[in-house]
Write a structure and sequence with these properties.
Layout: E1 5-10, E2 15-22, E3 25-33, H1 35-39, H2 46-68, E4 77-83, H3 87-104, E5 108-112, H4 113-119, H5 122-125, E6 132-137, E7 142-149, E8 153-159, H6 165-175, H7 183-190, H8 207-212, H9 220-235, H10 242-268, E9 272-276, H11 283-296, E10 299-301, H12 305-308, H13 312-324
Parallel strand pairs: 1-4, 4-5, 6-9, 9-10
Antiparallel strand pairs: 1-2, 2-3, 6-7, 7-8
The structure holds 5'-O-[(R)-(carboxyoxy)(hydroxy)phosphoryl]adenosine and zinc ion.
Zinc ion binds next to helix 4.
């Protein structure tokens, strides 16, 4: 095995991730999640997340090294998510990464979280075609990205204008009385339901909306439509067909996500689509994306679910690619930037 040994730290939301990657080989990906501490609030509480990162950081770094069979002294570079994400949560990772880089005397790479979601697929499916089209869908983001070079050049084609796709899953799950985070529960329940039972709206897909927001998404209207439908049903005293609502809602989301991703590939002449982020774990999204990519002659790449949700391996993978491409390291006064634009791949 060769290539630089990079330790990557991710703390943008509620997972403390520490990954070790050598070149394009994943050695170990250690995760400590605070999701259970947020469950009773129905969403991530930033202060709770920051505190959990602080407590988990050192044990998670130690576990990653132990499981990977490497010593910290062997690490060639440290990379860290500099943004976007929750400010306090990011700060814990950035401060830890600076301390490590300084103590070890190795370069520090502050990287963009969204770029890392794209870059992680190299550990599973090899080098990224240039360009690749990235569809990133999670609790915090829904973006269509044109990626000529994941270490240097990412262009935003579109993004959600309101709720992120995962956020819509979580809110609809709540309406249906399913636990947080709701995505996996909707995915499971929807398997028993009929996806054409209810015709929910597909935001920004027709007429002027499609012209003005060609590659943007909107899920807020859909979420409201589901809530109204459920309320109307309850008002009649009839039981809510949870599986049918879940399946019909899920179909509306994945239909729009895949339709616009395939359209973007066609209009930008890109043959490779990569889907990442927590919602990429959705079984119906994966199936429909495969079907539509096959029909359009597009190659589809989706990392395994554990690499789609937030993790340290993705940050290490991007850091290793930065080292191998000779990109400049970050300064030790690197800030955490909660609203770092996706075009800014390195901080
Ligand atoms: O990438 P991620 O772990 O964290 C960020 O938000 O950055 O994504 C979490 C989101 C949550 O909204 C969760 O409900 C959603 O991903 N999710 C899913 C599935 N698994 C996780 N959504 C739909 N279907 C799934 N199977
Ligand atoms: Zn993420």
């Amino acid at each position: 095995m060769n290539g630089p040994l990079v330790l990557g730290i991710e703390t943008s939301c509620d997972e403390t991730g520490v990954g070790l990657v050598r070149g394009r080989t994943l050695l170990f990906d250690a995760i400590a999640s605070s999701v259970e501490e947020h469950a009773r609030f129905g969403g991530v509480v930033p202060e709770v997340a920051s505190r959990a990162h602080l407590e988990a950081m050192v044990p998670t770094i130690e576990r990653a090294c132990r499981e990977a069979g490497v010593r910290l002294a062997d690490v060639d570079a440290v990379s860290v998510t500099a943004g976007p994400g929750l400010a306090g949560a990011l700060l814990v990772g950035v401060a830890s990464a600076k301390a490590l880089a300084l103590a070890l005397g190795v370069p520090l790479y502050g990287v963009n979280h969204l770029a890392a979601h794209v870059a992680v697929d190299v550990v599973e499916h090899g080098p990224l075609p240039e360009p690749t089209l990235g569809l990133l869908v999670s609790g915090g983001h829904s973006n269509l990205l044109l990626v000529p070079d994941v270490t240097d050049d990412i262009r935003s084609l579109g993004a959600t204008v309101d709720d992120a796709a995962g956020e819509a899953f979580d809110k609809v799950a709540r309406v249906l009385g399913l636990p947080f985070p709701g995505g996996p529960h909707i995915d499971r329940v929807a398997r028993e339901g009929d996806q054409v039972a209810i015709d929910f709206p597909r935001g920004l897909t027709s007429g002027r909306d499609l012209q003005r927001h060609r590659f943007d998404y909107s899920f807020s209207g859909l979420k409201t439509a589901v809530a109204r439908w459920v309320q109307a049903r309850e008002a009649t005293g009839q039981p809510v067909p949870v599986a049918d609502v879940a399946a019909s809602f899920q179909e509306a989301v994945v239909d729009v996500l895949t339709r616009k991703a395939v359209l973007a590939c066609a209009e930008h002449g890109v043959d490779d689509l990569l889907i990442g982020g927590g919602v990429a774990a959705n079984s119906r999204l994966r199936a429909l994306a495969q079907e539509r990519c096959d029909a359009a002659g597009i190659r589809l790449r989706v990392p395994r679910p554990g690499l789609c949700t937030d993790n340290g391996a993705m940050v290490a993978a991007l850091g290793a690619q930065m080292v191998m491409k000779g990109r400049p390291e970050s300064r030790l006064d690197l800030p955490a930037d909660s609203s770092q634009p996706v075009e800014q791949v390195r901080a």
